[in-house]
Amino acid sequence: MKILLINPPYAATEPPQMPMGILYIGAALEEAGHHVSVLDLLVNRSDREAVIEAVEDFGPEMVGATSVTMNWPVASQTLRWVKEAFPEIKTVAGGPHVTFTWEEIGKEEEWVDYLVLGEGERTAIELADALYNRNWAGGIAGLAWRENGGMISGPVRGFEKNIMSLPKPARHLFPLSRYRTMEASMGVTTGRGCPFSCIFCVGSQMVGRTPRLMEPVSVAEEVENLVKLGFHHIAFSDDHFGMKRSHAFEVCDHLISKELDINLSIFIRADAADPKLFEKMRQAGCTRILYGVESGNQEIIDRIKKKTNLKMLKEKVKLALDMGFQVQASFILGLPGETPETVKQTFDFAHSLGTYAGMHVLAPLPGSEVCEQADEYGIRILHKDWRRYDANHVVAEPVGISAEELKRIVEEHDRGFEYMDAIETEKWKNGQLSGKKLEDFERRRRMIFFFNLMKNGFFESSDNSIDPSINDDPYKILVKNAAKAAGVDDTEAFKWFDGAMESDNLTIANTGKKTKFIFADEI
Description:
By secondary structure, this protein is an alpha/beta fold. The chain is built from 18 helices and 19 strands. Helix 1 (about 20-30) packs across helix 5 (about 120-130) and helix 17 (about 475-485) packs across helix 18. It is globular.
């Protein structure tokens, strides 16, 4: 059966990364004998014309889209385009958002035929097999199907006990050259499961509370394969690395033995961090550690069931900084119990850490305890415009602080961030950045530059197309066109394109009567 999987776009403020869900489901479907293709709208044009053209070219019998809450409206609209143009194609959606809103989707979005709930590998295979064999798909565990004007769900599917039985992520289905050109990070799973119960998160409901771990040698081999593919920035995508201490040490030992050239980012709880593990992580190539701090007020931390404390968090951030790691501390404003005073405490605590602090805003995601029990937690949900559930917009109001005040604080913080970014940019222009700061700054600018070109369709546009008979250097003309399209200086654009050409991710080729940039794996 021919199956097209769609990766819908999301806000450009999030770093581009391949979705682990499609990577695993695509691999599972291929292993089961189906013919799978991926339409990656994150790094391509995402308009109706592009979607319809891709469907016509591939000719699938089933089209599936993944999504989280903030990009569900885009995923749904994409499936609607498919259904309206090709009513015979079966449309499927999966991911955390549809898992917890399937009844609502069943009533309001009739262009979606099936919903995969929870972990999707086995469910997707059984659905594809049933459709291929012209069998009724109703009753499949972990599936909701359309019936009598709404959705009916089958029995709950249990979690995959042995995740090593799943095939390796199908990265070959994605446009690798586009991700290499951006120097994007590649996600790697070392295990599934989260034993914690933070009220703003749906992680444990999606992957269970009991840790299910990948064999350490397998994790190291996957990272090694990514390096061979040209990726050196790796991010462990687990909810919590170090769920099992001995496993974390083994993963690091296997990575150390391979002597890989990588920059590894790891999310870890402060209570799992200590000098011995950090030293192993550093030897394994870890350069960046992410902590979920959430608030600078201990009562709020207790209320959200974070099960940590500010004193320990501060000590563990200092430990990581002293050992040479880059550290990012993540906070959420607007949690239950928030007041103007607790907001001030959060900003003061974040400033005291002496590292980068990311300030987000509570988005009560469907399925989370704070969403399902909003009244009990003193939270008023303002609306369900899912596009604004990106942790950057105020979509909920705690009893102790108004939405208007929260919005003012967020906007003030954003202006401060923009000011600091402008200062850093000025230092870069004046040659005042060096070492790791310069490397990170330029990587970020390069990523944004190419990401915007891809999302805005430059590489498919007339600006990336010239008559080969023109005497001028086509490379020079095309780069200048790209610089203009992205709004950057020509010199900077030439630097980024020179690097992409030298690494063989981009090339200039004649296609019929035109000369244009083409990504290496799209020739």
